[in-house]
Design goal:
This protein is an all-alpha fold. It has one domain (3-68). The chain has helices at 3-11, 29-38, 43-57, 65-68.
Length: 71
């Protein structure tokens, strides 16, 4: 996990599905858990979804709050 990865969680949007257009950091936990069970997509999107699922699962979403407040 790098600072850039955390920033990417806020700026990368879900490109498809029920939550299309929503930033990865704002995806609901049940959706992230579904990916964890069924398999994350390949590439950068899958890596970011897995990272967000881990953050959410461990109750660490507050780590992203300071980044949300940056200009």
């Amino acid at each position: 996990m790098t600072p850039e990865s955390l920033q990417n969680l806020l700026t990368t949007v879900m490109p498809y599905g029920k939550y299309k257009g929503r930033p990865i950091a704002d995806l609901p936990g049940h959706y992230l858990n579904w990916f964890a069970r069924e398999g994350f997509p390949p590439g950068e999107l899958g890596r970011l979804l897995a990272l967000m699922q881990e953050i959410d699962h461990n109750g660490l979403s507050a780590l992203l709050e300071p980044l949300r407040k940056e200009p």
